[in-house]
Amino acid sequence: MGGARTAKPGIVLDTVRLNQINVQAEDRIVWAGSGAILKDVDTELRVHGMCLGHDPWTFPVATVGGTLSTNSLGYKGGRYGGMGDHAIALEVALADGTLFRTRAVRRHSAGPNLARLFVGAEGTLGVITAAALLGDPIPEAEERRAFSFATFEEGFEAIQEMATLGLRPSLLEYGEEHASPWPHLLQRDEDLPLLYLGYEGFAEEVGASWTRARRILAAHGATELAQSVAESFWEQRHVVAQRFARGMPRQRRFGSGDIARDFMHVAVLPSQVLTFRHDAHEICQREGVALLDCGLWTAPDFFSSSLALPESLGGSERLSMVMDILLRRVHELGGSMEYVHGAGLRLAHLMPEEHGDALDVIRRIKAAIDPSGVLNPGKLGL
Q: How much is the pTM?
């Protein structure tokens, strides 16, 4: 998203040495420096019978400060929430050098929750230097399964019914893949919608969750696949990040060679998901862009897709224009243009449409605590 890219010459702060991890086992929290790697935090928690419920695909390389600054979401978000939901207190450095900590308690009713001000702010309001994170109990039982559906709508209705009931899966990834219009440039085949679903927790909870979930899935025509399908997916979820950790080069975001690719992750009211999916297909077909896949992640509210367009047909430039059309349609439906990665530079131009008059409130806060505008300038439309 360009959140860490410099928009103009400046000083880069490297938090790699802010990596201290201090588990307070009896309180079920861990204080971790902003440069601490999520995997390392999880390892320390497990020594004390706990784990970190935040599990993004970048788990082996992502830092506490980075994931808080974008309010990251992970594979287990349906059960444990996003990274911001794990932070009960923050230590923050302001632009004038002020360093403060909020109180590490799970709830308070003594004024605004100041820690939340800096979650998702991408370093524009202050620099997160440490955080008190919740330690989740190591699950007593875990079970993951995979299911296919004849249509996207049937799978969506099953997911909606489970959400309405209050089931909280630790894994929910649902998607359909479409064939590539340009197989000589990009190999993609048409596949049935596939749901990866998992539950974890204490044994009786997991058993009861699966009993009810299977009943709902069967009523919507789900076909259960071999358990190895789900386990293989789960075991491979961090592979790309593991390559990063080994120093392998990153792939270009917009593709390479003769075809450009991009993705969107939008939050849409459940009642509008199928409407937006229909509109996305219609818009992409009209504009000559390939909609390669559509899916949901962690909940029925969070819709994701990837798109592609050959450079000979406009490539990255035209693809960005179509993305803006799609994101504006999300706004028209009352949704948000990004639910997991932050806005950074890439979506900064759409922040006035995302927030409306509220963006001026954010700008006033920015002006009050960073009057010189030295903290991550140009990001979030600030």
A: 0.93
